[in-house]
Amino acid sequence: MQHLQKHDEHIRVIISGGGTGGHIFPAISIADELKRRDPSTEILFVGALGRMEMERVPAAGYKIIGLPISGLQRRLIYKNITVALNLVKSLFRAKKIISDFQPHIAIGVGGYASGPLLRVASKNGIPCLLQEQNSYAGVTNKLLAKKASKICVAYSGMDKFFPKDKIVITGNPVRNLIISDVLKREAITFFNLDTDKPVVLAIGGSLGARTINESLIKNIEIINNSRIQLIWQTGKIYHKAVKYHTDKIAGKNIHVYDFISRMDLAYNVADLMISRAGAISISEICLTGKASILVPSPNVAEDHQTKNAQALVKEGAAIMVTDAEAPNILVEKMLNIINDKNLREELSANSSKMAKPSATSQIVDEVYKLIEKTLD
Questions:
Q1: Are 90 and 68 in contact (CB under 8 A)?
Q2: Cβ proximity of 31 and 62 under 8 Å
Q3: Are 116 and 122 in contact (CB under 8 A)?
Q4: 3-state SS string over 300-325?
Q5: What's the pTM value of the predicted model, to 2 decimals?
Q6: Neighbouring-strand partners of residue 44
Q7: Nearest 5°: CA angle at 122, between 121 and 125?
Q8: Which of these, 358, 6, 342, lies nearest to 171 by C-alpha position?
Q9: Pairing of strands 272-275, 292-294
Q10: What is the spatial distance between Cα 319 and Cα 229, in angstroms, rounded to a whole number?
């Protein structure tokens, strides 16, 4: 850091990728840490047009440029002509972005947009750092691995995907989620909660999870008649359908949102989490030391969410319910855990032990090391 400050020019960093919250939130965490260390750092995000990063990144206070890129269509093969044309366009646009911004480093967090951007950056001799969130590496990161200078991962055994000498185990960068009595009091007001009733926080990732939503809807009367309060992030797609069912029973203890902007408050007030087993969700559950029921999504490469969940179950840090079982047993499990304080405390303590609180800081250390090499 001291060495970098000897140079007159501000550090310029491009962060590329997105598609889901699992890619976007780590990217924003890395940007926030870079800014915290040196407020003069210039940061530019590059995402995919039409994907959620185009909303979330500006909302976090950063500039983003969109590339017209999408993934290959397995079903509608003819659409791949457009995909190929958009890839060529994206490569040309990436060249212009690199030429105009002149970054000292390019960081890829996974997702389509990071492919052309990091490919162009590495061809121009700009060091590239990849951040892989999952136990099973994403397609874009696997393709970029040869070009990367350093690859930051959250799980051991990632040398089956990446060159061993480039890997650093850092854990996943997550939002700065602080658990405190002050924030818990703020959360009670924010969500309009009763202090005498336990709180369950159900989230299906930033886009929602059909099985979790359907399992809760199926048992809505049971939930409404129990003594729990439910904070429920449905995702935009499912919000209308869920509201229809909750409005019908006028459930005062069921608080439904398409997207929770103050997730820090939601974590502070939750006694139990119900969540998919995406890498970032798991990292946040561990960081905040929450008891959880994990429902792995079956629609992911190599069933990696089940592997993520099993890593916690093995340590007594979470309960796992399969996607197929969820409609029949999820709510029953939820009520059992809420009514068993000892089990909740045990799950909470064990999840805390698995946290990697300094992940973002370690990744930024690696960023600075790579920039220093190029400035020498």
A1: yes
A2: yes
A3: no
A4: CHHHHHHHHHHHHHHCCCCEECCCCC
A5: 0.83
A6: 14, 63
A7: 95
A8: 358
A9: parallel
A10: 20
Provide the residue ranges of all domains of the chain, joining segments of one domain with +.
2-172+357-375, 181-353
Structure tokens at 334: 């939820």
Per-residue pLDDT at 206 exceeds 90: no
| Class of the domain covering 2-172+357-375 | alpha beta
Reading phi first (left if > 0) and then psi (alpha if -120 to 50, else beta), residue 202 is in beta
Query: For the segment 269-316, what is each residue's pLDDT rounded down to a tens digit?
Result: 999 999 999 999 999 999 999 999 999 999 887 788 998 999 899 999
Q: Closest Cα to residue 25, out of 309, 354, 368, 260?
A: 260
The contacts of residue 374 (CB under 8 Å, 6+ apart) are 104, 105, 126, 127
Cα separation, 89 vs 140, in Å, equals: 18
Nearest-angstrom CA–CA distance, 274 and 254: 14
Q: Is 155 helix (H, G, I), strand (E, B) or coil?
A: coil
Whether 173 and 130 have beta carbons less than 8 Å apart is answered as: no
SS3 121: helix
Instruction: Report domain 181-353's class.
Output: alpha beta
Q: Do domains 2-172+357-375 and 181-353 have the same CATH topology?
A: yes
With the CA atoms of 95, 100, 104 and 107 taken in that order, what torsion angle do they form, in degrees rounded to the nearest 10? -50
